[in-house]
Amino acid sequence: MRLYQIHRRPQTRRHLPRNGVRIPIYNQTPNPDITRSPWRWRRRSATYSPHRRRPRPPQPTRLTTTREPWPHTAAPPRSAAAAASSSPAGSPLLRPPPKLGDAGLELLRRFANVDCAYELTAEELRAKVSLVDALVVRSATRVTREVFEAARGRLRVVGRAGVGIDNVDLQAATEAGCLVVNAPTANTVAAAEHAIALLAAMARNVAQADASLKAGKWQRNKYVGVSLVGKTLAIMGFGKVGSEVARRAKGLGMDIISHDPYAPVDRARAIGVDLVSFDEAISTADFISLHMPLTPSTAKLFDDETFANMKKGVRIINVARGGVVDEDALLRALDNGTVSQAALDVFTEEPPPKDSKLVHHEHVTVTPHLGASTSEAQEGVALEIAEAVLGALKGELAATAVNAPMVPAEVLSELSPYVILAEKLGRLVVQLVAGGSGIKGVKIGYSSSRDPDDLDTRVLRAMVTKGIIEPISSAFVNIVNADYVAKQRGLRISEERILLDGSPEIPIDSIQVHLANVESKFAGALSDEGDIRVEGEVKDGKPHLTLVGPFSVDVSLEGNLILCRQVDQPGIIGKVGSILGKMNVNVNFMSVGRTAPGKQAIMAIGVDEEPEKEALKLIGDIPSVEEFVFIKL
Ligand SMILES: NC(=O)c1ccc[n+]([C@@H]2O[C@H](COP(=O)([O-])OP(=O)(O)OC[C@H]3O[C@@H](n4cnc5c(N)ncnc54)[C@H](O)[C@@H]3O)[C@@H](O)[C@H]2O)c1
Ligand SMILES: O=C(O)[C@H](O)COP(=O)(O)O
């Protein structure tokens, strides 16, 4: 591994951030440059962070490492090219193109410590990943389950600087509560242009003729090509790249058909493309261009059987992923003439073995995964991923999140006070459960005048889940892994909308949380149906508890809470207040709810400090107090 620095700011403790985050830019392919630069990230005191962690036990070593650069002493000698990359800025000739575009790197550097490294072995990546908060990779770095395990919960975001996320274990990321974001749009045109370049180069034997002429030959007869105009091109995968290829190929006079089980017919029709079945596409096309993602269902989709059903002499372009083609089958199809030519930018194994028969086949044109490699695309991708990663670190839900609900920023901002309310209600309700009674079913109700389609509650559900699970386990829960963690713990979360007749301006009137089939340590919180039930509202931007069991209360959900059930009679409030006052516990809120005068009542008392056990005992000893519970919010 080579690891060295091309840019370094003075590195003293004074210069280091209080809450440093560290983002490495890793790539395991040869030839990128390497940059390392310590810089600052100041964590904002955001009101909501889906990535907020439970307080960690003191871990001095790890905390120190967040503020310091990785050791430089172990860096082995650098190659000339790499050394050139670390030369003073200003000499473009001495600087190979950066792996992540400068604009993106600069943006990242404004907010965090950034280390760039390449040619890391899997082992080296695992060793480094526990020191970082975010990881930015391109397609060559495999972010496996082992990488997430090695991160030991620190890694909060993986940024894939590109489209394909087949190199990231999404399930493992989700289980680890790590958000994965990609940069899905910035390289679309570059990939489409490369597909067209390969299509034309293959049809006219450009690469072969170039090599032949450079070898001193003049072979005009050997390299007679085929025309594109009037030929049928089948686009397999009519997504962003596929549809851009279609537009361009139309301009070349080709007839375009496409197969994509999920593409909207209207979008294809608007470009003048017919969506057809897989069999029709492969059996009628003269050229087939692959543009689907690599997934378990597309792996080796193009196998012996598929090639056998193609039109004799078909030509194939693959700018998607090598893994969608069975490369041995393609070789056989090339050898027996079923496929007359192939143009490949991507391979199952990258780089492919040096002696790969496919790469050296005379009817195959190859490029080393260059689809996204234009300076424009790389700048765009770098900016797109830098913004997504920084946004995610700040607690915003990135629009390009791959393993979490994409909640637009404006929706999140509108819902942010309800997000806090949801988590507080979860924390409250779980502390009302009697020890030993397992929680199985959670029902969350949202009373709202909004059309259900205009109210995205996924983030609220996640926060109720977080509130319920975190106080009773060591699990770290966020929007990414909330559903997964709930499922793992056998927690069934259901949601219900209660449609009100009010103004849709206010997104939510109240949120209710019910726990069914559990015993409560505070009988006053049981509804008539026997569920533990709490309800809250947002008032003046702050979360308030408004209902406990059948009792209406109104107490701000901040700090700590004492709930007392007593027989409604004069003087109790004064008695409780004076006990707390004597113990130096500041009461910030107090509210009494009762079913009827002189009957049962509930007193909800918001306190800043946690009262001594003695104070709680004294409250419990007041004769008319029937039960009480202390809750940390
Ligand atoms: N070579 C490169 O450098 C390069 C650059 C960009 C993208 N890519 C790759 O190109 C592919 C497409 O990228 P994109 O940005 O257009 O993605 P996209 O998600 O916009 O489009 C993919 C399309 O494939 C379709 N699809 C899924 N399964 C399919 C199947 N079984 N059969 C047919 N279609 C199927 C989807 O419905 C979708 O419309 C990805 O594999 C991506 O990784 C490669
Ligand atoms: O999926 C992609 O975006 C492309 O394959 C580009 O990958 P790269 O970042 O390794 O160039």
From TrEMBL:
Entry keyword annotation includes Amino-acid biosynthesis: yes
Catalytic activity annotation: (2R)-3-phosphoglycerate + NAD(+) = 3-phosphooxypyruvate + NADH + H(+)
Biased composition (Low complexity): 75-93
GO CC aspect terms: chloroplast stroma
SUPFAM superfamilies noted in UniProt: ACT-like (SSF55021), Formate/glycerate dehydrogenase catalytic domain-like (SSF52283), NAD(P)-binding Rossmann-fold domains (SSF51735), Serine metabolism enzymes domain (SSF143548)
E.C. designation(s): 1.1.1.95
Segments for region (Disordered): 1-98
Pathway: Amino-acid biosynthesis; L-serine biosynthesis; L-serine from 3-phospho-D-glycerate: step 1/3
Coiled-coil ranges from the UniProt annotation: none
Alphabetized CDD domains for the sequence: ACT_3PGDH-xct (cd04902), PGDH_4 (cd12173)
Location in the cell: Plastid, Chloroplast
ACT domain segment(s): 561-633
PROSITE patterns from the UniProt entry: ACT, D_2_HYDROXYACID_DH_1, D_2_HYDROXYACID_DH_2, D_2_HYDROXYACID_DH_3
InterPro entries given in the database record: ACT-like_dom_sf, ACT_dom, ASB_dom_sf, D-isomer_2_OHA_DH_cat_dom, D-isomer_DH_CS, D-isomer_DH_CS1, D-isomer_DH_NAD-bd, NAD(P)-bd_dom_sf
GO MF, any single term: phosphoglycerate dehydrogenase activity
Gene3D superfamilies, A to Z: 3.30.70.260, D-3-phosphoglycerate dehydrogenase, domain 3, NAD(P)-binding Rossmann-like Domain
Annotated Basic residues bias: 1-17, 39-56
EC class of the enzyme, as a word: oxidoreductase
GO biological process entries: L-serine biosynthetic process
Entry annotated with the keyword ATP-binding: no
Keyword field: Amino-acid biosynthesis, Chloroplast, NAD, Oxidoreductase, Plastid, Serine biosynthesis, Transit peptide
Family (UniProt): Belongs to the D-isomer specific 2-hydroxyacid dehydrogenase family.
NCBIfam families according to UniProt: PGDH
Protein name, as recorded: D-3-phosphoglycerate dehydrogenase
UniProt lineage: Eukaryota, Viridiplantae, Streptophyta, Embryophyta, Tracheophyta
